[in-house]
Amino acid sequence: MPLSPEQLAEIEAQRGQVQPTRRVVAPGMEEHLYTAYPVLDHGFVRVVDYMGDDAAICQAARVSYGKGTKSVQNDEGLIRYLMRHWHSTPFEMCEIKLHVKLPVFVARQWIRHRTANVNEYSARYSILDREFYIPAPEHVAAQSAVNNQGRGAALQGDEAARVLEILKSDSARAYDNYEAMISQDGQEGLARELARMNLPANIYTQWYWKVDLHNLFHFLRLRADAHAQYEIRVYADEISRIVADWVPFAHRAFEDYRMGAVNLSAQMVDSLRRMLRGEEVTQATSGLSAREWREFRDILDAPE
Ligand SMILES: Cc1cc2nc3c(=O)[nH]c(=O)nc-3n(C[C@H](O)[C@H](O)[C@H](O)COP(=O)(O)OP(=O)(O)OC[C@H]3O[C@@H](n4cnc5c(N)ncnc54)[C@H](O)[C@@H]3O)c2cc1C
């Protein structure tokens, strides 16, 4: 259970408040506002605030005085044109502020995205909760044989059980020691800022994360991708689902021109043209390295 009944009541009370405003509201996003969507075993993502909608992107692109909208079709066409041609600044006019609860090892990947504003829960000031990410059995997987930076099939039988037991018992022991060190019961008690250093990277932290839509799409492109680690990808997938309701035109353009698109080098384009003309192109005649050729073939041979 990621949220206590008190926290859920706070969220519900906030959702019950309605403010009259002259600001733009995105109806799809209003439905999501404040709701905490569970991710992993104790984590969540929730939208705390947002600014702008699809029309705001067009308004900025046209530098207009009013709503900026000519027609719905025009708006979608313009947004797709902007996305296609990397005219990115109009997308920066929309912003989103998220409250995220996530394991520390996921936070370490996430924080590499520097173009956001972050405020994290202070483990110097507060005591961390006894909450650790323990993967579901199907995600306790072996090292990948083909990708040094990935995982293969799920571990089976005794080995899977042993690994899960180690993860659970190490987490519990580390937290017991954390509590014992900070306790002021019959002792002075170690400072929280020091006691935390013994906690494992699967403990949960929380932060507020604010980012504009352009940089959020960059984050989603990298972290909702199949190559991203599962534990961050599930957060990216959840955020992507919310963004689809917030700015449906921009999200569709992002899916088409970023997520679903591929990047071809000059040699790849040349090889493709030659293939379309009926020429048989091999790695040796393509000008591509063996690895590039494999990646190129993966693109061409990908299932529909
Ligand atoms: C699958 C995967 C594997 C990865 N593996 C590793 C790894 O092994 N080791 C590792 O250290 N990292 C790794 N990373 C992290 C990666 O290298 C990036 O740090 C991370 O994805 C953030 O990307 P970014 O810098 O483009 O994003 P942001 O920090 O959000 O920046 C967005 C864009 O703004 C510009 N920008 C931002 N700050 C600066 C700046 N200071 N100077 C110049 N331009 C700037 C750049 O154009 C950048 O692309 C991995 C990421 C992925 C997705």
From TrEMBL:
User: Hey, what's the signal peptide range on this chain?
Assistant: none
- Fetch the Pfam families from UniProt: Thy1 (PF02511)
User: What catalytic activity is recorded?
Assistant: dUMP + (6R)-5,10-methylene-5,6,7,8-tetrahydrofolate + NADPH + H(+) = dTMP + (6S)-5,6,7,8-tetrahydrofolate + NADP(+)
Output the InterPro entries linked to this UniProt entry.
Thymidylate_synthase_ThyX, Thymidylate_synthase_ThyX_sf
Record-annotated active site: 223
Coiled-coil portions:
none
What name does this protein carry? Flavin-dependent thymidylate synthase
Q: Which residues bind FAD?
A: 89, 112-114, 120, 212-214, 218
Q: What gene is this protein translated from?
A: thyX
Q: Which organism is it from?
A: Cribrihabitans marinus
Protein family (similarity comment): Belongs to the thymidylate synthase ThyX family.
Give the pathway annotation: Pyrimidine metabolism; dTTP biosynthesis
Function, as annotated, reads: Catalyzes the reductive methylation of 2'-deoxyuridine-5'-monophosphate (dUMP) to 2'-deoxythymidine-5'-monophosphate (dTMP) while utilizing 5,10-methylenetetrahydrofolate (mTHF) as the methyl donor, and NADPH and FADH(2) as the reductant.
Sequence positions that bind dUMP? 109-112, 120-124, 196, 223
Swiss-Prot/TrEMBL GO biological process terms: dTMP biosynthetic process; dTTP biosynthetic process; methylation
